[in-house]
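Changelog note: in this version the structure field was regenerated for every chain. One regenerated record is shown below for reference.
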Amino acid sequence: MASFVLIHGGGSSGWDFHLLEPELRALGHDVVAPDLPIEDGANGLAEYADAVVAAVGAREDLVVLGHSFGGLVAPLVCDRLPVRLLVLLAGMIPRPGEPASDWWANTGYESTVDMEADPIGTFLHDVPIELAEQALAKGRPQAGDSLGRPSPLVRWPDVPTRLLACRDDRFFPLEFQRRVARERLGMEPDVIDGSHSVPLSRPKELAARLDAYLTPEEQPAQ
């Protein structure tokens, strides 16, 4: 049994994992999915990592998963706790000292979708419409300018790392995720079908993928 630490994306909450949690528990794992304190503009990446560490408590055998923006927080948690595996799911891969607000320009990100006009089409296009609308209603404002501060990340943590990209992601297209993974970590991501919101659209498949990472017969990149 592992303890999965699930770190949500920007403007969101641990609710994003409410379908994934029971799937992981059914496979024998423990799960914690805290809400990052994003509504307080004084908080930045360091404070977000503090909140995750506090939520983990005395849990052991940790697998830390950072989804989307959570990818900027997850490596900081790995610097603070003994972690068995780090997984970034459609994750923003940071560089040491890089302010979160600079990540977009530094990676050459160019959006091909209008996320404000069509958030469901951008993030949730394969999620049942009622669930997608519920997800939007659960959104939280990410306040303040604290994300302009340099990241406290000094180096990539000495923890086995897997990258999992979403094949049908319209927000972070697959080829963009592959390029950034190569440039920043020299890695090729594994690929799962689905949108940016795979924890909501394919929780059972995602749980199986994550569980497989803990076995000797790990799934190869696709």
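Spot check on this record: Strands lie at 3-7, 30-32, 62-67, 83-89, 161-166, 190-192. The mean pLDDT is 95.
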